[in-house]
Amino acid sequence: MTDPVTVPERSPEDVPDFDHPRAEAAIRELLAAMGEDPTREGLLDTPARVARAYAELTQGLRQTAHDVLTTTFDLGHNEMVLVRDIELWSMCEHHLVPFTGVAHVGYIPAVTGKITGLSKLARLVDVYSKRPQVQERLTTQIADSLMEILEARGVVVVIEAEHLCMTMRGVKKAGARTITSAVRGTMLTDQATRAEAMALIRSGTR
Ligand SMILES: Nc1nc2c(ncn2[C@@H]2O[C@H](COP(=O)(O)OP(=O)(O)OP(=O)(O)O)[C@@H](O)[C@H]2O)c(=O)[nH]1
Ligand SMILES: [Zn+2]
């Protein structure tokens, strides 16, 4: 059985372009299925609008971590870099409704000091968020891509998110936050470094 968390990474060439006419037909059908009249004036443009919205919300399917981790510098900086409270919006693959929260992303650069621009860490979060997702996979994909592409010595990724499928429907538990973490390399083996990263993450005010 395939592990639902570790779906194989597809290269964007293997992902077909977003099929707008097909999505529009599906939305028209969904409106009809819910008992609405897709031909009433207020809904006439809705299928095209929803298709455009979903194209945007799933644009990460057509991007890779390599696309955004392009700018790397050799600064000779060997110490931890951590960006906290990166806002994220993703879409739960079980219900296709949003989950939203923050990601904290930290890494220990390679011995060569290969680092990336700070904004690229936030872009990386977007690449993996803008897909049908589960929070566990989102967390590990961010961590694994940093290890691989930056050849980081260690990585920590913590995501805190609220799932609207648990808030606006189903168990209806507003405010419940799910916390996931992925720890790699020296962050795993060096307890002091991991403790430092976790203390920095916890020192947030949000
Ligand atoms: N592990 C994990 N579960 C998730 C995530 N997003 C949503 N879920 C859960 O996926 C599960 C799907 O459960 P099902 O029983 O198949 O679906 P359901 O009948 O709609 O479940 P309820 O939400 O309990 O009403 C639910 O428990 C959701 O809370 C995620 O990112 N990670
Ligand atoms: Zn869900």
UniProtKB/TrEMBL annotation:
List, alphabetically, the PROSITE patterns matched.
GTP_CYCLOHYDROL_1_1 (PS00859), GTP_CYCLOHYDROL_1_2 (PS00860)
Q: List, alphabetically, the GO terms of the cellular component aspect.
A: cytoplasm
EC number of the protein: 3.5.4.16
Q: In which pathway does it act?
A: Cofactor biosynthesis; 7,8-dihydroneopterin triphosphate biosynthesis; 7,8-dihydroneopterin triphosphate from GTP: step 1/1
**Pfam families according to UniProt:** GTP_cyclohydroI
Keywords tagged on the record: GTP-binding, Hydrolase, Metal-binding, Nucleotide-binding, One-carbon metabolism, Zinc
Any single GO molecular-function term of the entry would be: GTP binding
GO BP: one-carbon metabolic process; tetrahydrobiopterin biosynthetic process; tetrahydrofolate biosynthetic process
Q: Which reaction does it catalyse?
A: GTP + H2O = 7,8-dihydroneopterin 3'-triphosphate + formate + H(+)
Keyword Nucleotide-binding belongs to the record = yes
Which InterPro entries does the record match to this protein? Answer: GTP-CH-I_C/QueF, GTP-CH-I_N, GTP_CycHdrlase_I, GTP_CycHdrlase_I_CS, GTP_CycHdrlase_I_dom
The record places domain GTP cyclohydrolase I at 24-202
Q: Which residues bind Zn(2+)?
A: 92, 95, 165
Q: Which family does it belong to?
A: Belongs to the GTP cyclohydrolase I family.
- Give the record's subunit note: Homopolymer.
Q: What is this protein called?
A: GTP cyclohydrolase 1
> To which species is this protein native?
Nocardioides zhouii
Q: What's the encoding gene here?
A: folE
